[in-house]
Amino acid sequence: MSNRNKKYYQTLLFILALLTAYSLQLNATIRFVSKTGLSIPPYTSWETAADSIQKCINICVFGDTIYVANGVYEEQVVMIPGLSLIGAGTDSCEINTQPFATTTSYRSVIVNDTCLFKGFKIVVANNTELGGGIAGTAINSIIRLNRITSAKYGISNGSNAIIYNNIIDNISTGMDIFNSNASVQNNTIYTDPNSQSTIVAGMQITAFNSNYSPTIDSNYIIANIRAEGIRQSTGSRAVIRNNQILLRSLLTAIYLGSSDSVKVYNNIIYSERGARESIVM
Prior knowledge:
It is a single chain. The chain is mainly β. The chain has a domain at 30-198: Pectate Lyase C-like. The chain has helices at residues 3-26, 53-57; strands spanning 30-33, 65-68, 71-73, 77-78, 84-87, 93-96, 107-110, 116-118, 121-123, 132-135, 142-144, 147-157, 162-164, 167-178, 183-185, 188-191, 201-206, 215-217, 220-223, 228-234, 239-241, 244-247, 254-258, 263-265, 268-271, 279-280.
């Protein structure tokens, strides 16, 4: 194929992608969830709002937006691709899965590709040995302005999601970044000082090979007793920059395992008396 024909087909594919996206937006629907709604499909007003987040998701299509009112929603949430799920805020809009999180593999919220998930408090389990808050492939998705608490894992991500401005507290591992090119920025993480997990860390970064390069930028981590700040274990070519880590343990602030290249710069490490202020390679 000549360069001229190649450019023609590339332009045609781009135009078709734009037309598809525009068509999806035209067909998109705004829906509502509220504890005080009448729960009448298709849930397109606050008066007829669904009484369950998942019940509303189950009738959605790519491009839909769901607004969730104040309240405690005791349910697991599994999103569909292209969905925007927007809560009323972490002070008043809560997803609580404590009755269901009985294994380490349980996840309260599954975020799919091309999604927006924001504005929720997620209470995962009854202790920090069970479950996780947010997980999923989440390709081209945004996870922001959420609070995740009481779990083994806060956010588990294996994609190129943008994860920023979240608060993760009372957790064994704040984020588990696996086979991921995610951008992780401006998050605040507090590990559980009483966690008995084998690995306790603000962030754990791993990959099967060196084809992945997540960016860990401008996060604030309090690594309590028995915790490391950031643990880059195997494979990933992570970029770790501009983070602030308060270390309260005899472990390391930043641990760098086997990888052919990791970039670490402009990080600030504070250590309390008796803690080890260090980067280990």
